[in-house]
Design a protein that fits this description.
globular
């Protein structure tokens, strides 16, 4: 498998499959469902964090980078998952969170110099979830920096010991058989060493931010290129040839310093683009100039694509995702059109991301086959959307994703935009293959060519919310 052509399936472990009836997904549950993923045809799995964690931020507040949360399983069970994934010809990526730890990580007390401290709030920087990045530590009386929640203090990569410790983490997992990493929140590594104030913003931020953070231009708190290079180069050295994909919450034209060490980075513009041909076409044109793009339409943080663009557009969205040049990432449940749910009551996640983390729906059972107990979040609509029913239906969304994954081998070369017009036609070439999508409201004529795949084969033209892949 070449990573350039890979379809990587994102698993949020707590919501994928529960094996013991406690209502929380776990590692044995993932092993149980590997044949389902193999049948879909995905090439690799990415596990959101399964490390020990107090769950202040859904597992991204980590107390041991080389361990396994006992609520999710054991190290032996993770090694079984790695082996069983490989036995089916798939690869496994872990989430690596180099920017911060949990405040309960032993490092925070044993190695305070590994974190960013000040005698008083040193600047005006704002955290990703709102509020100041500075919180007072009652034990020391000093202030520590956190780019996210106060329970997640940032590591200081100006200290070589931090790089060395994170290199050790990478090597441990590679020795255990992991094939690479999705690296979290990498733009937060780019802090100016003098901790200078961020200037007032003169235009809206490129991507959604809390209102108070949007008032500042993140010139010094994020994305400072020399600090990015200092932090990422040692991780690449430790990873060797292993695959590294970065979450960089910045536009594609700012990815250069990151791609010096990464294989690819996500194109966030696609996630946030309006569902219009002109808007999507603009994203594709800009991203086509960047070598090292990775693509997604949903994930555990930013919600379900079907809720965002409407369920009637999910077939076109599937064609769009799977015909991109570079690795694509499919969030669990998107292959069956799973929509966002109500979240927890009371909320589990304090930043309101529960709605995108409801359990996977495998069958029409009361909890969608996810658990025999009470799920930590309720099922959304298993009677309407589930794997068992769609896998048996050749016209289902699941079957379309399977067929698109299989057809990716027909796609070669860079993306060349052909059309992005107000009527809704979005068309682009990959070598001798033309991809045509209808993102408008009315049916369009089907472009000329030999059809390799159509989302609505019985229609004479191109239905709104549909697409086609043609040769010629």
């Amino acid at each position: 498998m070449q990573w350039q052509d890979a379809v990587v399936y994102q698993i949020y472990p707590r919501s994928f499959q529960d094996s013991d009836g406690d209502g929380v997904g776990d590692l044995p549950g993932i092993v149980r469902r590997l044949d389902e993923l193999s049948a879909l045809g995905v090439h690799a799995l990415w596990l959101s964090p399964m490390y020990p964690s107090p769950l202040a931020d859904g597992g991204y507040d980590i107390t041991d980078f080389t361990g396994v949360d006992p609520r999710l399983g054991t190290l032996d069970q993770l090694e079984e998952l790695i082996a069983e994934t490989h036995r089916r010809g798939m690869r496994l990526l872990l989430d690596l969170v180099p920017n911060h730890t949990s405040i309960d990580h032993p490092w925070f007390r044993e190695h305070p110099d590994w974190y960013v401290w000040a005698d008083e709030p040193a600047n005006n920087w704002k955290a990703a979830f709102g509020g100041s990045v500075w919180t007072n530590d009652a034990r020391s009386g000093r202030w520590y920096l956190h780019s996210f929640f106060p329970e997640q203090p940032d590591l200081d990569f100006r200290n070589p010991a931090v790089s060395a410790a994170m290199q050790d983490v990478v090597r441990v997992w590679l020795e255990r058989g992991v094939d690479g990493f999705r690296l979290d929140a990498l733009d937060c590594l780019g802090k100016h060493p003098e901790l200078l104030d961020d200037p007032p913003a003169t235009r809206p931020p490129p991507f959604p931010e809390p209102p108070e953070a949007a008032e500042l231009e993140r010139r010094h708190s994020r994305n400072w290129a020399p600090a990015v290079r200092t932090a990422l180069a040692p991780l690449r050295e430790a990873a060797g040839d292993a695959f590294l994909v970065g979450e960089v919450y910045r536009p594609t034209d700012e990815l250069g310093p990151y791609l010096e060490s990464l294989d690819c980075a996500f194109v966030f513009e696609l996630l946030f683009a309006e569902w219009r041909a002109e808007a999507i076409g603009s994203v594709l044109e800009r991203a086509a100039r960047v070598a090292g793009t990775a693509w997604m339409l949903s994930n555990h943080d930013f919600g379900r694509v079907g809720t965002r663009i409407g369920a009637d557009n999910l077939r076109a969205a599937a064609v769009l995702l799977h015909t991109m040049p570079g690795p694509v990432f499919l969030y669990q449940g998107d292959e069956i059109g799973l929509l966002e749910g109500p979240g927890g009551d009371p909320p589990v996640d304090r930043y309101n991301r529960d709605r995108a983390r409801h359990p996977m729906q495998w069958d029409t059972g009361p909890h969608g086959g996810f658990t025999t107990g009470t799920p930590w979040l309720p099922a959304v609509d298993p009677a309407q959307r589930n794997v068992a029913g769609q896998r048996a239906d050749p016209g289902s969304l699941w079957s379309l994703h399977r067929d698109l994954i299989a057809i990716r081998r027909e796609l070669r070369g860079d993306l060349e935009l052909v059309a992005a017009d107000p009527g809704g036609l979005l068309a682009y070439r990959r070598g001798d293959v033309l991809v045509a999508l209808n993102l408008g409201r009315d049916a369009l004529d089907l472009p000329a060519g030999e059809p390799l795949l159509r989302t609505h084969p019985g229609d004479p033209g191109l239905r709104a919310g549909g697409g086609a892949i043609l040769r010629g």
